[in-house]
Amino acid sequence: MAIAKAERLMNLALCLLGTRRPLSKRELRDSIEAYVEAVRPGNGAAGSDDSFNRMFERDKDDLRELGLVIETVENLDGEVGYLARRDSNRLPPITLDAEEAAALGLAAKVWQQARLAGAASGALQKLRAAGMPEDLDPYEPHGALEPRIPVHEASFEPLMLACRDRRPVVFEYRKATAARPETRSVEPWALECWRGHWYLAGWDRDRGAERVFRLSRITGKVRSRNGRFTADIPDVVTVRETVASWAGETADRSALIRLRTGSGYPLRAKATAVRELGDGWDELEIPYGHGLDAWLVEFGPDVVVLEPAELRADVVDRLRAVAKG
User: Which of 33, 69, 208, 259 sits 20 to 30 Å CA-CA off 110?
Assistant: First the structure.
């Protein structure tokens, strides 16, 4: 069975690499013997278009996992075709010095998840095949370091693959101010970890603008969509800078809050002025930027916003949304 699958994958890869125009599922099915067998009458339940579709999608994902860049193209009639351009699947000569190899080795050790660890190990093997010296151990110069980036969100892996393959996605997203999630159609650009949370940057098709999404607020499955990106991908995707500005890291105003004594130490650390009010309360002046309302809500009844009025209204709206469930 393993040999049969390897032969099927090889035949599919050769078809996709050898064509000058996108091939439809129907054309690929008729060109590869294993697919012909899957839909041949008399094969029972397995002999069906559904069986072929499942087999083809698995094979396509396996080839992409192996590093083959497969493009999905939709023609004027709405029919979807597939091809693997040779210029997109050809590696230039690779030469790495000891420091570069060590950096790649550290990156490969970052991932805790088994599947990502396997992909990273496979990438190092490909680099060795492309020219990285066999006797060079990329882990040795920094062997005492054990970097880790934890990923708990189920949406991370499908989004990572969608970013890599440039595939649009659809998912349910619950904003901090909303009681229920809503559907978002996104062209994913990049993932980045900031302050212990993962964020996705991309083009929101419904809003026609760049957006950043926190993965912990994605509910349900991430579903891929056919077709190409409609918006240009920027040369530099500033996920961290965007999230930092939303979180008030680039604040240029001040807010006045009342904070219960003995609580809210992260707020006290950011305060530019603190005044004791008595009766178990203090008055703090803190930097005010986008996202401060979401942060203040986390402290619940220990915080009361005094000014500005717009910040107070935003905090009240968020508390009401939480109360509605």
Answer: 69
Q: Return the DSSP state at 233.
A: P
Q: Which of 130, 202, 197, 149 is closest to 171 using CA atoms?
A: 202
Which H or E run includes 212? strand 209-214
Tokens of 291: 């996202």
CA 229 to chain centre: 16
Cβ 212 vs Cβ 239: under 8 Å? yes
Alpha-carbon distance 262 to 298, whole Å? 16
- How many Å separate Cα 236 from the centre of its chain? 16
**pTM confidence score:** 0.46
pLDDT digit string (tens) for the chain, length 325 residues: 456 788 889 999 999 998 888 999 889 988 888 888 877 766 554 457 788 888 899 999 889 888 888 998 887 777 889 999 888 777 676 676 767 766 666 666 665 554 555 666 666 666 666 555 555 554 454 445 455 556 678 888 899 889 888 899 999 998 766 678 899 999 999 888 776 778 888 999 999 988 889 898 899 899 998 888 998 888 777 777 766 665 555 667 889 999 999 898 888 888 999 999 989 999 999 988 777 887 888 888 999 999 999 999 989 988 887 777 6
Place of tokens 């302050």: 195
Radius of gyration of the chain (CA): 26
Q: Closest Cα to residue 306, out of 270, 281, 269?
A: 281
**Upper half-sphere CA count for residue 194 (Cβ side, 13 Å):** 21
